[in-house]
């Protein structure tokens, strides 16, 4: 259905049949809805517009009736069209497109086109839509007045734009008669009068053009008390001097050969910025697409001229050289005999013009470009300048806008469009390696057609040889990746080159302190490199894009500095790791500092000599532990120990032994611990080697090591160590069923860790006390402690600990009877563990999901989760985790009526529980055995198992809480005991 408002109201079907809307009130209703252009019009407003003060008896019902009439009229003409009239609180909306919207679209399309003839043609098509005055049969209706005025203004502006486009195309003679009538109708419109004057002047009638100016000047003075606008004064001056008329409505912007991808929001933002600022500089690394973006922005303005400064000016060009060049691009006469400087003549020629100059590629003539821009902006009030440069112009009023590389999605789209190869994982990898820089992607796309994306990705380490052939019509500096970066490298002095090439040794960027220590950087040199878009600055760090880094590594080798710089880099990061305080109140900041340097630490380990590497891994051990990265730590210590020539590697061997166990390898652990302690029998080593054995249920060994550690810490006056030993004793006592000792040691640890301000320590103590509260059925207390731990973990960035606390809270929610909350918490914990690649925490969260599934009766879902982890528990997790998992699988088998399967599972689970020495684990296995026996019709054996379970729980001082009695109650109910 088509609706016409550019003239009398008209409705037609898609095939052009007229639709008659007979009822006057229905026509008013339709016009009212159309005038609000798809917006909801309230019922109150519609009632007022339709009836004013002469309201019907029931206005709301009568309005509904008129709406129904309108819907029937549309539906009768074209089935399905009744849906166009939508009921939307607080009224109605018409989902329709009008000829006014088509007119606006064609006008916008015309204004964006750089070709004058095309612009004129599109505007002619737009104006042809008008059949008379807008809303011609509703000119007295208040609801239509604002829309009529708006559309009339758009129509006049379109006429003026078409006249300007036709004048630019050389149609001045044909325009004169057409514009004379419009000027008579609108004698005070200055833009229309300017178009008329240009047409007269272009048609060889300068006297009439000057008379038209005088007529306007007199009218403005007598009727409004105003003078003509500066652009009209400048136009009169040009006609008096018989100079070529610079219209300010044309330009020289190139047409797009390929679509601009991924920059829509940037174009909108920069268009808004140019409304606020008169000088905007697009700043960014070479090849990032500054010119394409600038041209796209310029197309949104009527008068825009692209001045390619790299195509006709040498690096030593003066401000007058540049002014002459810019004037030549604009087609202005270079009147050298006038006695005025080229910059002055350019300012005078532009005076009064509303235009945009795009000064492109300013970086090799920055000084003269800046001086000329400053003078033009000072002398020409209506001028705007959009500059592109790899460094700022650094003059007053400049608004710097850094052009970022394309995001991953846009980069993949660009690569796919240029290469003809659909986006996929390999394309994404290529785009990431090339930093999303459009020119690099386009160079790669030309190679992808021959090599394929997989081979291209594999060869990017040799990117400068690979990306060595661009398009023939590109500037020489943009035909290869090396030439692109050479263009930025060549102007640098030796100090800047030295800093830039040394920065390439870093991975993931570096701080100012690191740049000074490793690269010999001075602040002003670093700032200059940032200004030149060779270094990216942000969040207190400095980094190189990958292609620039690869280029600078080559330069580092050429300078013979590569090995020396690697050594300085490794020494700096070893020293940093040794300096930070990972225990106590500074722990959070220290962890954040080291996390930011993860890439640099890995690079340092690869490049360090054996002694430096040993220092670095020893300093990093506690950070790796806190982050939950035992595998990474284990491999690092293995590599260092295999090459170290240092006399003392005792501490590194202790770390390696501990991380091996944390990584799930419990083989020969007694012997390995004795070996480590033979050379590192410190209180810390005894404590840590005992602490990491908890996963294997070695309660006696843990108790012995921790007791010896505690004595050593006290002797040394080490409060942190004493707290750590108490926390381990609390966890060991809880596992052994000694709840009173667990409480005493846990509270002592919490107090001591509180004194030291160590968040990780508070986490450990609070976790044990929270588990103790679970065992005794104090769920509110357990939740409070785990939530406190969660806050500490989140604030410290200890994400594996965050995962653990979320799972703990999930267990409490399950015990409190809220399985939905439990699932949400466990799923959050699982996702976080997967992100951190922490298998143990992923297992812990998954088991929680299985617990909830079983309690909801979803036995298949629960079993699938549990069996996924069975082999891992047997091989890695140790007896405590295996005992619990087998108990759960046994209960599932029992609930399914599979007595033999249940008995087998609980028998294996009981053996694992006994290996832990944990009476609660043993009791759970015995309860499972009772279920299997009762299902098989062996009540005596079932009774014995339940009695043994009860005895174990009573011995531990932890009777089964009510929330955990479900399995036992079910088993007891099977027979009358």
Task: Characterize the structure shown.
The chain has about 1000 residues and is mainly alpha-helical. Among the domains are: about 1-160, Arc Repressor Mutant, subunit A; about 265-400, P-loop containing nucleotide triphosphate hydrolases (Rossmann fold, 3-Layer(aba) Sandwich), CATH 3.40.50; about 410-485, no CATH class; about 490-560, Arc Repressor Mutant, subunit A (Orthogonal Bundle); about 870-975, Serine Threonine Protein Phosphatase 5, Tetratricopeptide repeat, CATH 1.25.40. About 65% of the residues lie in helices and about 5% in strands. The protein has 48 helices and 12 strands. It has a 5-stranded parallel sheet, with helices on both faces. Strands 3-5-4 form a 3-stranded antiparallel sheet. Strands 1-2 form a two-stranded antiparallel ribbon. Helix 8 packs antiparallel against helix 9, helix 38 (about 780-795) runs antiparallel to helix 39 (about 800-815) and helix 42 runs antiparallel to helix 44 (about 880-895). The protein is flat and about 120 Å long. The N and C termini lie far apart (about 80 Å).
In short:
This protein is mostly helical and 977 residues long.
Could you name the key traits of this structure?
single chain, 977 residues, mainly alpha, Arc Repressor Mutant, subunit A, Rossmann fold, 5-stranded parallel β-sheet, 3-stranded antiparallel β-sheet, 65% helix, BTAD, WH-like_DNA-bd_sf
């Amino acid at each position: 259905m088509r609706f016409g408002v550019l003239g009398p109201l008209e409705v037609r079907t898609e095939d052009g049949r007229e639709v008659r809307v007979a009822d006057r009130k229905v026509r008013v209703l339709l016009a009212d809805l159309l005038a609000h252009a798809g917006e909801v019009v309230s019922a109150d407003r519609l009632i007022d517009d339709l009836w004013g003060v002469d309201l019907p008896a029931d206005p709301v019902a009568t309005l509904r009736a008129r709406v129904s009439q309108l819907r029937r009229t549309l539906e009768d003409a074209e089935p399905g069209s009744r849906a166009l009239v939508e009921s939307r609180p607080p009224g109605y909306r018409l989902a329709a497109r009008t000829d006014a919207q088509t007119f606006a679209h064609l006008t916008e399309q015309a204004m964006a086109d750089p070709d004058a003839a095309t612009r004129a043609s599109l505007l002619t098509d737009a104006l042809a839509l008008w059949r008379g005055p807008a809303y011609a049969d509703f000119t007295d209706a208040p609801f239509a007045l604002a829309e009529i005025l708006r559309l009339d203004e758009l129509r006049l502006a379109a006429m003026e734009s078409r006249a300007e486009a036709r004048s630019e195309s050389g149609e001045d003679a044909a325009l004169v008669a057409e514009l004379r009538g419009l000027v008579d109708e609108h004698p005070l419109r200055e833009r229309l009068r300017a178009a008329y004057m240009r047409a007269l002047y272009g048609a060889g009638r300068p006297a009439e053009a000057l008379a038209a100016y005088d007529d306007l000047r007199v009218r403005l003075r007598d009727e409004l008390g105003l003078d003509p606008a500066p652009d009209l004064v400048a136009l009169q001056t040009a006609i008096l001097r018989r100079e070529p008329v610079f219209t300010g409505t044309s330009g020289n912007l190139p047409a797009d050969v390929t679509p601009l991808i991924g920059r829509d929001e940037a174009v909108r933002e920069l268009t808004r910025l140019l409304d606020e600022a008169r000088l905007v500089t697009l700043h960014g690394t070479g090849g990032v697409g500054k010119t394409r973006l600038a041209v796209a922005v310029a197309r949104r303005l009527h008068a825009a001229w692209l001045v390619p400064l790299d195509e006709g000016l040498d690096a030593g060009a003066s401000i007058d050289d540049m002014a002459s060049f810019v004037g030549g691009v604009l087609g202005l006469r270079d009147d050298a005999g006038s006695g005025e400087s080229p910059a002055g003549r350019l300012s005078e020629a532009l005076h009064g013009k509303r235009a945009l100059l795009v000064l492109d590629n300013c970086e090799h003539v920055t000084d003269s470009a800046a001086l000329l821009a400053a003078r033009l902006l000072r002398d020409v009030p209506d001028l705007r300048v959009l500059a592109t440069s790899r460094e700022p112009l650094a003059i007053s009023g400049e608004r710097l806008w850094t052009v970022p590389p394309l995001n991953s999605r846009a980069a993949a789209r660009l690569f796919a469009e240029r290469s003809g190869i659909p986006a996929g994982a390999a394309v994404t990898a290529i785009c990431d390696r090339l930093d999303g820089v459009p020119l690099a992607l386009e160079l790669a796309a030309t190679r992808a057609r021959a090599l394929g994306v997989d081979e291209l990705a594999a060869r990017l380490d040799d990117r400068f040889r690979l990306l060595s052939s661009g398009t023939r019509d590109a500037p020489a500096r943009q035909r290869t990746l090396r030439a692109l970066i050479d263009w930025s490298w060549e102007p640098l002095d030796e100090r800047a080159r030295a800093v830039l090439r040394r920065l390439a040794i870093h991975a993931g960027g570096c701080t100012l302190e690191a740049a000074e220590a490793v690269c010999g950087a001075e602040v002003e040199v670093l700032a200059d490199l940032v200004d030149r878009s060779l270094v990216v600055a942000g969040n207190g760090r400095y980094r190189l894009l990958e292609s620039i880094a690869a280029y600078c590594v080559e330069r580092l080798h050429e300078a013979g500095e590569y090995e020396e710089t690697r050594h300085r880099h490794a020494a700096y990061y070893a020293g940093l790791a040794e300096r930070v305080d990972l225990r106590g109140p500074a722990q959070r900041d220290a962890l954040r500092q080291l996390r930011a340097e993860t890439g640099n630490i890995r690079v340092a380990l690869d490049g360090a000599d054996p002694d430096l590497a040993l220092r670095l891994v020893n300093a990093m051990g506690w950070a790796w532990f806190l982050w939950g990265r035992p595998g990474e730590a284990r491999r690092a210590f293995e590599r260092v120990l295999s090459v170290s020539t240092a006399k003392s590697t005792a501490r590194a061997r202790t770390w390696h032994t501990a991380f091996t166990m944390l990584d799930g390898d419990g083989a020969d652990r007694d012997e390995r611990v004795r070996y480590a302690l033979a050379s590192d029998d410190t209180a810390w080593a005894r404590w840590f080697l005992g602490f990491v054995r908890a996963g294997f249920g070695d309660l006696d060994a843990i108790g012995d090591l921790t007791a010896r550690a505690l004595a050593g810490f006290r002797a040394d006056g080490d409060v942190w160590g004493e707290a750590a030993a108490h926390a381990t004793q609390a966890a060991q006592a809880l596992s052994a069923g000694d709840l009173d000792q667990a409480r005493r040691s846990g509270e002592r640890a919490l107090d001591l860790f509180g004194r030291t301000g160590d968040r990780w320590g508070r986490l450990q103590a609070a976790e044990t006390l929270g588990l103790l509260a679970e065992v005794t059925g104090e769920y509110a207390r357990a939740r409070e402690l785990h939530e406190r731990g969660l806050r500490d973990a989140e604030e410290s960035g200890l994400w594996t600990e965050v995962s653990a606390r979320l799972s703990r809270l999930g267990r409490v929610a399950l015990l409190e009877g809220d399985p939905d909350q439990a699932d949400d918490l466990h799923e959050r914990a699982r996702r976080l563990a997967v992100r951190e690649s922490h298998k143990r925490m992923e297992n812990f969260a998954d088991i929680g999901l299985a617990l909830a599934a079983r309690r909801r009766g979803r036995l298949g879902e629960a079993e699938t989760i549990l069996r996924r982890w069975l082999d891992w528990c047997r091989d890695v997790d140790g007896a405590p985790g295996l005992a619990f998992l087998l108990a759960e699988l046994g209960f599932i088998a029992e609930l399914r009526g599979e007595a033999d399967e249940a008995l087998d599972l609980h028998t294996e689970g009981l053996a694992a529980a006994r290996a832990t020495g944990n009476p609660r684990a043993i009791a759970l296995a015995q309860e499972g055995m009772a279920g299997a026996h009762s299902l098989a019709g062996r009540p005596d054996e079932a009774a014995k198992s339940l009695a043994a379970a009860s005895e174990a729980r009573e011995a531990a001082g932890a009777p089964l809480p009510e929330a955990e009695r479900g399995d036992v109650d079910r088993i007891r109910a099977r027979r009358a005991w």
